[in-house]
Amino acid sequence: MGGPAVVHWVETSERAGEEELARAARRAFAAAGLGSRVRGLTAIKSHFGERGGNGFVPPRVIREVVGLVRAAGGTPFLTDTTTLYAGRRTNALDYGALVLEHGFTPEAVGAPFLCADGLVGANETEVPIEGVHHRSVALAADALRASSAVIVSHATGHLAAGFGATIKNIGMGMASRRGKLRQHSRLRPEVDPDRCIGCEDCLPNCATGAIGPDARRAGRTPVMAIDAERCTGCGECLASCRQDAIRFDWKVGSRRLQEAMAEYALGWVRRMAGRFGCLTFVVHVTKNCDCMGRREAPLCPDVGVLAGTDPVAIDQAVCDLLRERNGRTLEAMSFPKLDGSAQLAHGERIGLGTRRYELARVD
Question: Do 161 and 338 meet the contact criterion of CB atoms below 8 Å apart?
Answer without folding.
Answer: yes
